[in-house]
Amino acid sequence: MEIVMKKWRIIGCSAVFLLLFMVLAGCVVKPVYYLNDDVTMRSIVSGACTGVPDGHAVYMKYPLTGLLAVLYSLSRRLGLFVPWFDLFLGGCIWLAGTGILAGCGELSREKSVPGRMALLLAGVLLFAGLLLPHYLYIHYTVVAAALAGSALFMWVCGGSRGWPAALLVLCYLVRSQVFFLALPFLLIAVLDDLLDSGSAVVPAAAREPLWARFAKRVLPPLLPVLTLGVVTALLGGAHCVAYSSPQWRSYQAYNDSRTRLYDYTDFLSTDRYQELYRQLGLDSGQYQVLAHYDLLLDGNVDGETMEQAAERIQAMRPDAADSGYLRQCIKQYYLHVRYDGRPYSLLWGCVWLLLFLLLAADKNWKKLPLLATLLLGRSLIWVYLIARGRFPERIWLSLYLLEICLLLGMLLREWARRRGRRDCGKRDPVAAGCLAVCLILLGLTALRQLPETSRRAEEQREKQVCWNRLTDSLEEGQLYLTDVFSAVPYAGELYGKDSGQILLLGGWLSGSPLVRQRLALYGAEDGVQALTHPQTRLLMAGDRDVSWLGEYLAQRLGAVELQPQESVDCGEGVEFVIYRLMEREIISGGETEPQ
């Protein structure tokens, strides 16, 4: 009992230390979002999107977002503003860091003070170099990877499986795709556990039947995995029920088609389809709406339209299944690891090599094939994602977090076991050297990542100041429609309020029932109809060309034109223009003037 209490005291002190560490870092570098996807989800659950908190945040699982929406509703009734969404994401990073220190605590049961201090230092440096930067410059995908990485680290460090399983459940709720990416690495952790459980030498006289050995050695490591599968299946079922209405099922098909067109083709990155729009099954107006990513303007641009365009673009592209394309993807994978992923790639490669050396020095030959399998498996995952053409920074960052945490957990556990098997007075230069190199690498990673993250976060925060000036100048009671490219540079700040007056004309939320519910308040079914309402304006960045939109509106509505109503100077050379849709009256001479 005393040991248990001491263990929880250590974990509690670690949690308080990390919380203070995060608060201090957040005061020095104001946390900001990496992309505006997080802010869009926050606007849904907080009620800024429709006026009422709603749990349908699409990319997070409903049991989580439904709970956040309830919390926002309760605080609104009390007249309080509590940034539940931001607190949750920051709390996930804190939980992941506490889990890593708890895993280090599981390995430090020896009496050697230097050994305990070395493990604690490794945990702190791992948090500072790999997790803390993604609190200061946050994205929910990488937060999910931090949760899963911490769970993998704890899993291989031993101890209770409840905490790592809970972190994996949280990862599933935050970003299920990252959870599924983590499953192959979890399999490696389970196999590693099984190899350890089967390594004990059993005397011949005491050998048990096969079923008994299975129940004692194989079943215990598998039970947490089976439980995890049942829990995530139940949560996934609850999510499916929440999106089971015909409107949400229709939207999910719409969003899948949108994803296929914009994320898996080169439609937005080239203008070569401008002359080929008829071959894509589009008329000129639909092409302009799709090319400018203003999907909300035309209700007839539905999921079927985008699916048809995506299929025809894919048919125009060369076959991506031949060996030449595969060799190109493998080469891209090699170049990325060698040049683009630093310092993560350097840390990953060195930790893998240190683990290999430690296993070889310990003559633990049965684990070397597992290490080789991990290398092969991660290569297959990377090449597959590159071949799919969807491999942004947040994805490869997540993969690095998963694998580095797993490898570091395996390395520190092998170090602790090797140290425990040797006599106390006997030096072990191999283990000491491996740990020293590991600490140096983690320290260098933290020294590199924290200043770099601070710089990027500061740049984003300066942009956000311009956006805040804009939102503060908006006329109360008006709805402002803006295109994605005008708003996308401004991701948002943690612990801030979202403007409920701005509605994006494009993006993943454009075809959802939530947006249609918002437009219905203005008697509109799409963005063009909304612009005819006297309380609706068009908000565009000053450098955006709106001539195509004026022509498109004239085709849809007849004698109308967009007139600049106000120019907002946001500083730093940033300007936004507010347009109003005006009717035109034909006068003598064939000229027109606004009515």
Can you walk through the features of this model?
This protein is of the alpha/beta class and 595 residues long. It has 22 helices and 8 strands. Strands 3, 4, 5, 6, 7 and 8 form a 6-stranded mixed sheet that branches. A two-stranded parallel sheet has the order 1-2. A hairpin with a 5-residue loop joins strand 7 and strand 8. Helix 4 runs parallel beside helix 7, helix 8 packs antiparallel against helix 9 and helix 8 runs parallel beside helix 10.
**Number of helical segments?**
22
The assigned structural class equals alpha/beta
User: What's the rounded overall pLDDT mean?
Assistant: 86
| Overall 3D shape | globular
How big a fraction of the residues is strand?
5-15%
**What is the number of beta strands?**
8
* Helix/strand order: HEHHHHHEHHHHHHHHHHHHEHEHHEHEEE
Task: Characterize the main sheet.
Answer: 6 strands, mixed
Measured as a percent range, the helix fraction is 55-70%
Give the uncertain stretches in residue-range form: 200-205, 586-595
User: For this entry, what is the oligomeric state of its chains?
Assistant: single chain
Distance between the termini: 83 Å
Rounded to an integer in angstroms, the radius of gyration calculated over CA atoms is 28 Å
List keywords for this structure.
alpha/beta, disordered C terminus
In short:
With 595 residues, the protein is α/β, with parallel strands linked by helices. It has helices at residues 2-28, 37-46, 62-77, 84-107, 113-131, 133-136, 140-157, 162-174, 176-197, 210-242, 246-263, 284-291, 303-316, 323-340, 344-361, 368-388, 393-421, 429-473, 484-487, 513-520, 527-531, 547-557; strands spanning 32-33, 137-138, 479-482, 502-504, 536-541, 560-571, 574-586, 592-594.
